Amino acid sequence: MALPIIFQDAAVVAVDKPAGLAVQPGARVRVCVVDVLQKQLGVRLFPLHRLDKDTAGVLLFAKHARAAALYQGILGSMRVIKRYRALCFGRPPRECGDIRVPIRTGTAARRRQVVRAAHTAYRVLRATDTHTYLELTLHSGRTHQIRIHLAALGCPIIGDDKYGDFARNKACARAWGVKRLQLFAHSLVLPCACKPLVLRARMPVHFLRALDAVAL
């Protein structure tokens, strides 16, 4: 397996992560992006952010510790623009808006949950009466933020098996074979000295098929 490289220089490499592939090793992970890409490039890599296993799109790694420290600082300051695309059930009340629903972080079992502010901006790209194709911009970086926020808006992402509409997910799977989470990291804009570095992922095949299935 070889991962498609969007951009690389001496400090970082960006790849177009496929859906269904975990970013890092884990107890139930047999193959992950880190292992595949390190073998592909022949260097040790430092993940700079994460994507859920089922989320495709732009994923950035540092090639050495100094670059990791630098870019983690940039990412942590929210100077990076992260944009996603999602296909959802329903239609938002407005063509564009902001979702500011606080999100609990931490583990409930350990009683260490903390409620943190979270902010997602959305813009309708195309819509029918029953489905919407959205662009989303993150202004904070909470776990599952987009999935939680769209569910709170009343527009759960198609294929979301944690926060979504399970009955409609099953109906989509039966009618059109649409089963995957319909969310991908579309672009990442990094501030640079001369001009911003814009990294874009291709629209995944499963997402294209889902758009076609719902006539968008």
UniProtKB/TrEMBL annotation:
Query: Keyword Zinc, does the record have it?
Result: no
Q: Which Pfam families match?
A: PseudoU_synth_2
Where the record annotates domain Pseudouridine synthase RsuA/RluA-like, the positions are 12-152
Give the molecular function GO annotations: catalytic activity, acting on RNA; pseudouridine synthase activity; pseudouridylate synthase activity; RNA binding
Q: InterPro entries, per this entry?
A: PsdUridine_synth_cat_dom_sf, PsdUridine_synth_RluA-like_CS, PsdUridine_synth_RsuA/RluA, RluA_PseudoU_synthase
> Which keywords appear in this protein's UniProt record, sorted alphabetically?
Lyase
Biological process GO terms, please? enzyme-directed rRNA pseudouridine synthesis
* UniProt superkingdom: Bacteria
Keyword Lyase, does the record have it? yes
Q: What class of enzyme is it?
A: lyase
Instruction: Please state the Enzyme Commission number of this protein.
Output: 4.2.1.70
Similarity comment text for this entry: Belongs to the pseudouridine synthase RluA family.
Record-given protein name: Pseudouridylate synthase
- Name the source organism: Treponema pallidum subsp. pertenue (strain Gauthier)
Lineage of this protein's species? Bacteria, Pseudomonadati, Spirochaetota, Spirochaetia, Spirochaetales
